[in-house]
Amino acid sequence: MNDLLFALVEQEEYEILLEEAMNEYGQSILQLVYSYVRNSTVSEDLTQEIFVKFYNSLPTYSKQSSLKTWLWRIAINHCKDYLKSWYVRKMQFTEHIHTIFESSKEMIEEEMVKKEESEELVQTVMSLPLKYRELIYLHYFEEYTIKEIAELLSINSNTIKTRLRRGKELLKQMIEEG
Amino acid sequence: MDERLRHLKGSMKQSVFQNLKFTDKHKQAIKRQIKQENILLPALQLLSVEKNGIELVQKLRSRGIQEFDEQEGFVYILLHQLEQKSYVTSRWKEDQKKYYQLNSKGKKVMKSLENGSQRSAFVLQGLLGGGQ
Question: Chain A within 8 Å of B67 (Cβ-Cβ)?
Fold first, then answer.
């Protein structure tokens, strides 16, 4: 009886944790997933699957990492599994990246230039190969430190530094070549 | 490059992420999915041994699943759908009751649910009347 009661209390806690995680991180996870799969419909589906997986994984959560790190790891692995799946390798689902910046007639020339540069940057980042794109995203968008990224991806810090540098070189090259 | 990348966050928010919104609709779908799996997996596990509807409801109840308590007829909808998807096979016995048992396809689904494979779980979406 005690066991059953304990199990019920735990389940209630898991539900609260799920609710909090969805409120706190739902939007960030959706964006993170998009940075991997580059398709909004797929991003929504995968995000749902990730939170279900997160919920199911709570009994095995060891508290060695923060709950956020735990969730991010699940999300990243889930995206990579998806990208590796037969289904995706056979078909390309990448949608055309729409960069919908608001433009108006009142925009002064300086602003127009800025807008174009922003568009170009986003387009180019999103077209980088995965191993560079994920680092650029985690470091510059999510503002994770090299050390944190190393923990998240289980990759050596030096490898990350090298890859990040290489990624930026590639980005520069792609932008210059237009 | 570093200087330009400093603006990446703002630029992405104004472009690719502008129409990407995590809403209540997503939250509801996640909760529904979890609820469905919470019933589906135990039901499949219990049907490894042949059972009729009443027996299944009783066994589910002893596992703390009370969804069928108020409306026991609901279990027959579930069983019917499992049969439609050919996860279970059924037969009438002498006691005039229909008995259901998991078949090989059902066992595969059960295994993938046990392994937490959400992709196959999503295939099951809608089985319990929810889904999108």
Answer: no
Query: CA of B63, closest CA in chain A: separation in Å?
Result: 9
Residue A85 has what pLDDT? Answer: 86
pLDDT band at B132 (very low <50, low <70, confident <90, very high): very low
A–B interface: beta-carbon pairs under 8 A = 107
Q: Is the dihedral of CA B113, B25, A142, A111 positive or negative?
A: positive
Q: What is the structure's pLDDT at B112?
A: 80
Domain chopping of chain B, boundaries? 24-123
Q: Kindly state whether B14 is in contact with chain A, defined as any CB-CB distance less than 8 angstroms.
A: yes
Picking from A28, A48, A123 by the largest number of B CB atoms within 10 A of its own CB, the best residue to mutate is A48
pLDDT, tens digit, 9 for 90 and up, residues B8-48: 999 999 888 998 999 999 999 999 888 877 888 899 999 99
Question: What are the C-alpha distances in Å from A6 to residues A3, A14, A19, B20?
Answer: 5, 12, 20, 39
Q: What is the ipTM of this complex?
A: 0.81
Of A43, A49, A169, the CB nearest to B20: A43
For B24-123, the fitting CATH number among 1.10.340.30, 1.10.10.10, 3.90.70.10, 1.20.1250.20 is 1.10.10.10
| Chain-chain contact of B21 with A140 (C-beta, under 8 angstroms) | no
Beta-carbon contacts of residue B48 (< 8 Å; ≥ 6 apart): B101, B102, B107, B110
Q: What is residue B90's three-state secondary structure?
A: strand
The CATH T-level fold of domain A1-95 is Rna Polymerase Sigma Factor; Chain: A (1.10.1740)
Question: What φ, ψ does residue B103 adopt, rounded to 5°?
Answer: -105, -170
Start-end ranges of CATH 1.10.10.10 in chain A? Answer: 96-178
CATH class name, domain A96-178: mainly alpha
